[in-house]
Each structure stands twice: as C-alpha cells, then as structure tokens.
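Field log, afternoon session.

UNIT: design team B
ACTIVITY: writing a sequence onto a fixed backbone
BACKBONE:
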C-alpha cells in the first residue's frame, strides 16, 4: 500500500510557548514608545480580536501576520513616520523570535519517526498556517538547519492563500498524492487540523497527537512512537 503523511507544525512537530516572547516584545515597545506595556498589549489584543471576529480577515493570511497587527498597534500609539514604524516592527519581531526559538522543543519520537518514514519510502509533508519564513525559524531549532531533507513539500498560507481550517489544504494534499492509497493527516487540533479531512475523502486517515482526546479521529496518539506503531499496520 502506498501511503503519505501530512504533519501539522506548531505543537505537533514541536512544543511551542510564546508567552515570554510576547512579554519581551511588549516590554521593548514600552521602552521605545513610552507607553505602559499592558496598554500596548491591550491595543494589540483589540486589533487582533477585530481581525479574528471578521470572517474574511480571519481567513486572509495578510491580515493575520504579526507585522500587520503591530503596524496597526504602533500607528494607533502615535508613530506616523512609516520608516520609523517599520524599524520598530523589525526590532520587536527580532526580539520575539529570539525568545520563541529558545523555547521550541522537538516532540518526543519525531526524529525516529521521520527516519522510519525515510527508510520505508513514505513521503512526508508539512501542512501549516504558519508563514514559511516563521516556520523555517522554528524548524531549524527543532530539527536543524537541514530540516527540509525530511519533507517532500510544505503546504503553507503562501500556497493556500487562506488560514486553517480550510478545504484548500486538503485539496492540495490530494493533488500532491494522487497515487497514494492512504493519506495520514496528523495534528494536535481536531477542529483545525483533522475534522475537515475526515469529512472530505476516504483516503484520509486522521491522527490526533495530543495529551488529551477530542473530536472523532481515526487514531489517538500521545507521541510519535504511537503514530509509528499505528502507521506500520498499513505497510
């Protein structure tokens, strides 16, 4: 049987904690702009919520970029000069990503699972609504600078032009794997990663990898050792 594997990224391939990174970013903006960090965070949150509450904007990757929310936030706080605004955003995100990377931890059993797939000739892909540039930063920490050698391709917002959950991700999976008998879709979220796949096509087999069960996946795994055991039944 010919199979393919599609892996979500954040909190599937690696654990991700961004609280400290956001705190440091707001501290920098406070020092730079002269406003209280909690006020800046509140303005940021208001702009983010406005995007999330608008269905068209919520699904549009351009509105979901951190740069966009920062641009709105800094503008509201009085920075009118475009060049100055871009300089502040660049530095704020530099601080943010430096701390994010420090806290990225590869998921248990991932490396051995990827080695197993390579050995068995299983094509492995990533599907994510993280932007490719940001994904690359985190994947370098999780799997090294040569992380791309483990994956045949990446489905990201640059290709789908829409955020998860969206049928577009699964249509691209089917296009990429026309000759596959089974396509295993693996993610930490039932709603965002798996539910739509299960409804779309019988080729899809859904695996929820999480500490807690939710939804109606075909298989529940706590780590990649469990995933490997399940998939091996189909070879």
């Amino acid at each position: 049987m010919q199979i393919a594997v599609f892996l979500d990224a954040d909190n599937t391939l690696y654990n991700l904690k961004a609280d400290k990174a956001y705190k440091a970013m707001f501290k920098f903006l406070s020092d730079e702009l002269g406003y209280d960090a909690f006020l800046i965070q509140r303005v940021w949150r208001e702009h983010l919520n406005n995007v999330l509450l608008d269905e068209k904007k919520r699904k549009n990757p351009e509105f979901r970029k951190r740069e966009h929310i920062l641009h709105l936030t800094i503008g509201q706080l009085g920075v009118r000069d475009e060049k100055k605004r871009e300089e502040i955003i660049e530095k704020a995100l530099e601080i943010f990503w430096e701390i994010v990377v420090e806290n990225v931890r590869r998921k248990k059993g991932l490396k051995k699972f990827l080695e197993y797939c390579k050995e068995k000739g299983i094509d492995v892909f990533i599907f994510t609504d993280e932007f490719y540039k940001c994904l690359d930063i985190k994947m370098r920490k999780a799997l090294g600078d040569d992380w791309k050698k483990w994956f045949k391709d990446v489905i990201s917002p640059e290709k789908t032009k829409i955020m998860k959950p969206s049928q577009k991700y699964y249509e691209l999976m089917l296009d990429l794997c026309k000759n596959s008998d089974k396509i295993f879709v693996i993610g930490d979220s039932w709603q965002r990663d798996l539910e739509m796949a299960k409804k779309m096509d019988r080729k899809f087999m859904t695996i929820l990898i999480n500490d807690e069960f939710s939804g109606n996946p075909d298989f529940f795994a706590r780590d990649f050792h469990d995933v490997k055991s399940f998939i091996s039944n189909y070879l």
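LOG NOTE: Residues 82-102 form the longest helix (21 residues).
NEXT ACTIVITY: expression trials, pending approval
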